[in-house]
């Protein structure tokens, strides 16, 4: 269950990109994936066409992730076709069946966002059952459950998570250079693999990323990996 090697490298997704310079900064800093929010109500929203345009800047092996909230399957499929090499992130109330239906054509990989209540209420979230229900997902992205679905910069109580989850996990929700190392140290031993995802913590405004904050965040992840490899 735990990573096969002590030198496991935590993968990084920088989310909510809207500008060319921010895509370039994320790639240059070492991001493994970049997220484009296709949920129109988000202040970070981009159109499919804009996501495709931004994604054309990506070198090979950096994955464009398209974020959907309760989107119709045909529009999810259209987005995945419009952005070659992309994967979907379902961040609404999509059922396992709907996620599968939306990605079946083309066999796209996809992420399921699990939105965990803040504070002690998070103890009631049954991640083991949730992960089992979404066993076809490439990974379960753990985010804080706040109004507006996501991108709120809020941290849920990581200690409430089970001590062992047989799934690839992506820790998300209020991450920043100051806390990401603690999250990696706590959660990496509990899952098949751990990645991290950040939006607010590397911004100066919603949808406007800061290159220095991105570089700081990546450096903090690398420092955490180095510490755990000792
Ligand atoms: O980022 C948004 O605006 C957003 C809107 C609606 C649904 C999902 C959204 N973002 C999803 C993400 O994957 C974010 O990176 C994640 O929620 C973490 O955000 P933050 O706490 O700001 O780092």
From TrEMBL:
CDD domains in UniProt: PRAI (cd00405)
Record pathway: Amino-acid biosynthesis; L-tryptophan biosynthesis; L-tryptophan from chorismate: step 3/5
Enzyme kind, highest EC tier: isomerase
Domain N-(5'phosphoribosyl) anthranilate isomerase (PRAI): 12-219
Any Gene Ontology biological process: L-tryptophan biosynthetic process
PANTHER family, alphabetized: N-(5'-PHOSPHORIBOSYL)ANTHRANILATE ISOMERASE
Entry's family note: Belongs to the TrpF family.
Protein name: N-(5'-phosphoribosyl)anthranilate isomerase
Species for this entry: Pseudacidovorax intermedius
Gene coding for it: trpF
